[in-house]
Amino acid sequence: MIGWGLAATIGALAASLAAPQLFLQPNMLVASLIYAFAAAVLGGLDSPVGALVGGLCVGVAENLAGTYISWIGHDFKQAVALALILGVLLLKPEGLFGARKVARV
User: Fold this and answer.
1) Which of 33, 38, 56, 85 lies in disulfide reach of 81, CB 3.0 to 4.6 Å?
2) Average pLDDT, rounded, for the chain
3) pLDDT for res 47
4) What are the residue ranges spanned by the domains of the chain?
């Protein structure tokens, strides 16, 4: 419960800080949501430290791909985050720091 409360508080704070720079509309933080989900999936959905490391990896990978791959440029930077989500879910679904849970029946 504390984790959900902290996440809601930090999300509300981020939205209120981003609102003056963006037009106020229902989907104004969709791009940030894609990056946050990519970071959480990369680091592991059950690991807060993994989410931090995943966020750093997503940011570095996105900026390097946008700078050094000419056809990505500034326009397709979100595609890098989506490709990271797809790659992690295909290769290691629990993420980098996530724990694999085995259920015995």
Assistant:
1) 38
2) 85
3) 83
4) 23-91
* C-beta separation of 30 from 45 below 8 A: no
pLDDT tens by residue, 4-42: 888 889 888 887 887 777 676 777 778 888 888 999 999
CA distance 30 to 86: 18
**pTM score, two decimals?**
0.71
Angle at 12 between CA 10 and CA 16, to 5 degrees: 115
CB atoms within 10 A of CB 46: 14
Return the DSSP state at 96. Answer: S
Tokens at residue 41, please? 């999936």
Cβ 17 vs Cβ 40: under 8 Å: no
Q: Are 84 and 38 in contact (CB under 8 A)?
A: yes
CA 87 – CA 3 distance, rounded (Å): 27
